Amino acid sequence: MGQARRNKDRGIAAKKLQFFYLMKKVSNRTEEEIQKFIKHRFK
């Protein structure tokens, strides 16, 4: 049971990283701007 949860968390983390990478690629924003954008968007 614990293993499944860990895998799920890893999947979410991987998706987040992928999202960061895409954001960086699409717009040459800084990491900070992306963080602000995410905080603003996912309140």
Outline of this structure?
By secondary structure, this protein is mostly helical. Helix content is 84%, strand content 0%.
Unreliable stretches (pLDDT < 50, length at least 5) are none
The tally of helices reads 2
Q: Characterize the quaternary organization of these chains.
A: single chain
Order of helices and strands: HH
Shape: elongated
The radius of gyration is 13 Å
Secondary structure class reads: mainly alpha
Task: Report the count of strand segments.
Answer: 0
How large is the share of residues in beta strands? under 5%
User: How can the largest sheet be summarized?
Assistant: none
Would you mind describing this structure in some detail?
- With 43 residues, the protein is mainly alpha-helical.
- It has one domain (2-41).
- It contains two helices and no strands.
- The protein has helices at 2-26, 31-41.
- The radius of gyration is 13 Å and the shape is elongated.
- The N and C termini lie far apart (30 Å).
- The mean pLDDT is 78.
Features of the shown structure:
mainly alpha, 0% strand
Outline the secondary-structure elements.
Layout: H1 2-26, H2 31-41
